[in-house]
Structures are given as C-alpha cells and as structure tokens.
Amino acid sequence: MKRGLVLTIAALFPLGKLSACASCFGKTDAPLAQGMNAGIFVMLAFVILAWVAFGSFFVFIARRARQTEESVAEPTDKSGNPSPSSH
Q1: DSSP 41-83
Q2: CB of 46 closer than 8 Å to CB of 35
Q3: For residue 39, which of 55, 21, 52, 57 has the smallest C-alpha distance?
Q4: Phi-psi label, residue 26: left if phi above 0, alpha if psi -120 to 50, beta otherwise
Q5: Model's pTM, two decimal places?
Q6: Is 10 a domain residue?
Q7: pLDDT in tens, 9-57
Q8: Domain count, the chain
Q9: Does residue 23 belong to any structural domain of this protein?
Q10: What is the pLDDT of residue 77?
Q11: Which of 34-68 are b and which e, b meaning 16 or more Cβ less than 10 Å from the residue's Cβ?
C-alpha cells in the first residue's frame, strides 16, 4: 500500500521539476525574485500604513479631548460668545 502511494506521488511530481525557486537558488536578478521582493515591499507598506492609521486615530482622539476640555473650561452665553464674567 505504501509503495503504491510513493510511486503515485513520484509519478505526479517528477524530481526534475522539483527545484529551488530563484530566490532560494541564489539567482537574485531573476524576474521571480524581483516580483517576490516587490511583494514583500507592498506588504511592508500595508503594515506601515496600518500603524500610521492606528497612531493617527489616537492623535485625533487626544486633540478632540483637548478641544472638549477647552470648550468646557470657557463658559459661553446663549449666542456662543464667551461670557463677560469670564474675563
């Protein structure tokens, strides 16, 4: 049973076609290696973009909190102008 399975796998995947890719083989100027490097840089760009968006969200929250604190600290009249008693 095992021998038949091994022969079937060997027939489906001949050893001549099982070779290392251009990056593993060491040919760094091959189009496959250049495409793989481009893919790595694109994934790196997405990770950096996600970190920037994550950090920007917290900067936005901090600014909004500061604006809210400032608007609460300054009393205003009904028209939205600062009240004269606050000066």
Answers
A1: HHHHHHHHHHHHHHHHHHHHHHHHHHHHHHHHHS-B-TTSSBP
A2: no
A3: 21
A4: left
A5: 0.53
A6: no
A7: 777 776 665 666 666 777 778 888 888 889 999 999 999 999 999 999 9
A8: 1
A9: no
A10: 65
A11: eeeeeeeeeeeeeeeeeeeeeeeeeeeeeeeeeee
Tokens of 50: 């996600």
Q: Is 11 a member of any domain?
A: no
Amino acid at position 87, single letter = H
- Sign of dihedral through CA atoms 40, 46, 50, 52? positive
Residue 82 has pLDDT above 80, yes or no: no
In a domain, 19, yes or no: no
pLDDT band at 76 (very low <50, low <70, confident <90, very high): low
Domain that holds residue 52: 47-71
